[in-house]
Amino acid sequence: MRFAVPRSTVAARSLAVLGASAALLAGLAACSEPASDAPAQAVTYKIVATGENLSQISAVAYYTTPAPGKSSVRANMGTVPLTPVEGKDAAMWQTETTVTKGSRIDVTAAPASSKTSLSCVVRVDGNEFLSAAAGPGQPVTCSTQKQGN
């Protein structure tokens, strides 16, 4: 035995499914990160090591912007070599990048030895923006975010 479904019911269900699909697609489009007109800022991250074992640092990570107007993302560099600082008992690592204004600015690193001290400096558009120092054997962080966030 077959039951006939009125055409008006089939049409109403089809329209309901199409409407729900359109609403879902519109919602997904609204969730994507929109491009921003916020300007990019030139950011220089610098880590300076003093003490022993000045050849490298580890756990180096910093925030950078993948495209204009986007939020910053974390670039994990791992272990990086240090460059000796001429005339000083110190070595450094430095990188330049861009970050959209208002996005996270952050650099972290860990020393290679318990007798190595690290400091960090962040420059934005050529001006010192953040700086911090850590004790021997401790990691250092310069960040616009509070610790734990």
Automatic annotation (TrEMBL):
<keyword id="KW-0732">Signal</keyword>
<protein>
    <submittedName>
        <fullName>Uncharacterized protein</fullName>
    </submittedName>
</protein>
<feature type="signal peptide">
    <location>
        <begin position="1"/>
        <end position="22"/>
    </location>
</feature>
